[in-house]
């Protein structure tokens, strides 16, 4: 870690590792300013509603504090994928009744996609365990893959197949997949993993593991959507949360 002075100030009495408090304190001011501006921008763009802006600011703050500008840049890549794919052919999606809400994503949706990454990023810094950061990146990549696959598939394809039996279903059906959506989702996961590698959050040898875990998480998301979500046992946010956990766990536990 580049910041290793002994902890002083309010955090020093909590018994936390010196490197942890030093890094958090080093990034706290920049994180506060940048994430506040980011949340306001997302709200003005109607990418999130008010609750989503608050949740996004909180999650972004912890990501920035624990992983620095590189973590925020990786989150930014996810944000661009989300906004771009959501806005693609929005008129068509509205006509089909499958567009995102006008006011943007809620706090529940934001936390379902980002909470796992934020927790693992903080844990990686606290415990000095790099593979936890790999899990965080895989979770972010999975969120990008899932969003891109769903939104681009709804925008550009009428040939939708239920993942459990590959029968044709209507656009927007829970658990439905398309070829263009699947390819776009894999590409989005690779993009986020590459940004994290370029920012030196993970070494190059782990890039494929992060992207691969993201792709598997994306398929799990569709499977859960076709089963538990369609049966009313899980909400869409619950499915997203479970999928980010699965992607993170795969990246951490499997050889890389």
List the helices and strands and how they pair.
Elements: H1 18-44, H2 50-87, H3 90-96, H4 107-127, H5 130-156, E1 160-162, E2 168-169, E3 176-177, H6 179-198, H7 207-229, H8 236-253
Antiparallel strand pairs: 1-2, 1-3
Description:
The protein has 256 residues and is an all-alpha fold. The chain has one domain. Helix content is 71%, strand content 3%. The protein has eight helices and three strands; from the N terminus they run H-H-H-H-H-E-E-E-H-H-H. The chain has helices spanning 18-44, 50-87, 90-96, 107-127, 130-156, 179-198, 207-229, 236-253, and strands at 160-162, 168-169, 176-177. Strand 1 (160-162) and strand 2 (168-169) form a beta hairpin. Helix 2 packs across helix 6 (179-198), helix 5 (130-156) runs antiparallel to helix 6 (179-198) and helix 6 crosses helix 7 (207-229). The longest helix is centred in the first third of the chain and has 38 residues, at 50-87.
Concise summary:
By secondary structure, the chain is mostly helical.
Which key terms come to mind for this protein?
256 residues; mainly alpha; 3-stranded antiparallel β-sheet; 8 helices; 3 strands; globular; disordered N terminus
């Amino acid at each position: 870690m580049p910041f290793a002075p002994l902890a002083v100030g309010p955090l020093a009495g909590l018994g936390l590792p010196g490197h942890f408090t030093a890094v958090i304190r080093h990034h706290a001011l920049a994180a506060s300013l940048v994430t506040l501006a980011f949340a306001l921008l997302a709200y003005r763009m109607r990418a999130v509603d008010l609750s989503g802006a608050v949740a996004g600011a909180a999650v972004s703050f912890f990501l920035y504090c624990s992983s620095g500008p590189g973590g925020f840049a990786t989150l930014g890549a996810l944000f661009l994928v989300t906004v771009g794919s959501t806005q693609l052919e929005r008129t068509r999606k509205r006509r089909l009744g499958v567009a995102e809400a006008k006011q943007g994503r809620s706090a529940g949706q934001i936390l379902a996609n980002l909470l796992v990454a934020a927790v693992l990023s903080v844990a990686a810094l606290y415990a000095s365990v790099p593979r936890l950061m790999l899990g965080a990146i895989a979770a972010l990549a999975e969120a990008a893959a899932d969003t891109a696959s769903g939104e681009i598939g709804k925008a550009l394809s009428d040939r939708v197949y239920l993942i459990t039996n590959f029968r044709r279903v209507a656009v927007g059906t829970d658990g439905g997949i398309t070829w263009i959506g699947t390819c776009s989702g894999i590409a989005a996961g690779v993009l986020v993993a590459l940004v994290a590698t370029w920012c030196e959050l993970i070494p190059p040898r782990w890039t494929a593991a992060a992207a691969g875990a993201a792709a598997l998480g994306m398929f799990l998301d569709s499977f859960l959507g076709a089963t538990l979500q369609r049966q009313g046992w899980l909400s869409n946010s619950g499915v997203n949360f479970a999928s980010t956990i699965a992607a993170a766990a795969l990246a951490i536990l499997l050889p890389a």
